[in-house]
Amino acid sequence: MHTETNHQHNSIEPPKSSGPLSWMRQPLTPRVVTTGSLTSHVHSLAGPPEGGPVYVLLHGIGMSHRYFRRLQIVLSGHGDTHSIDLPGFGATPRPDRQLSISDYADVIAATLQKMGAGRVVVVGHSMGSQFATELAVRHPGMVSHVVLLGPVVDSARRTVRQQTLALGLDSLRESPVGNAIVFTDYVRAGMRWYLTELPVMMSYDLEGSLAQVAQPVLVLRGSKDPVASRSWCGKLAATAPDGRYLEIPGKPHIVQHGAAESTAAGIMALAAG
């Protein structure tokens, strides 16, 4: 296991902006992709003409592409990026049945195939870390590297009550903009679909699946993340056959929003290794 602790990468220039919220106005290219009865919305930013890695961003439960926007802008300076709103989340139609983690992985694979994305660096946040891991296990030829941001569910805190308390504490540490994105995305997804998929998230064996991932893996967290603890993330990095750990100082659970440049630097260092 390669370990990098309390270290920020500063080699990436932040995106040029005309104001503190200019990233929200960065235009994305939307695409609707249907696989069977399930629909995903893909929000893309093209990379440089000379090409580079393809980055695929997978959100957590209740969320959408919106909290990846800052990270996506930085990564798009180095390769094509695709942030996927999975079935039931964001503005996508709600499925008529509960979806398993393997269902989501298969939908992601089919979506990427239809887009002709080739091998990708898959980046999952929170529950999205489960989707990313399962994609690498079930469709290994499609994935070159795996990045887990604030992964769940901590094996030492595997109850809904414990996770709810951790999320409540995290909301006190997030920025007002970050909290606004979370709240409005939760409203859009709806409590019914959130509660439908919550047991799926809580029961997934991330450790067991991660042990099967042959690709290089980066486990990344903010040092103030109460959801994905340091001990849990270190354990995951040690579980992966080719795993490494990176902690971004002073940031809570939505580390890709609060520290987009440092998060992107860690992701690109993995992809370049």
From TrEMBL:
Residues 1-24 are annotated as: Disordered. Coiled coil: none annotated. Residues 56-257 form the AB hydrolase-1 domain. Pfam families: Abhydrolase_6. It comes from the Bacteria. This is AB hydrolase-1 domain-containing protein. It comes from Pseudarthrobacter scleromae. The lineage of its organism: Bacteria, Bacillati, Actinomycetota, Actinomycetes, Micrococcales.
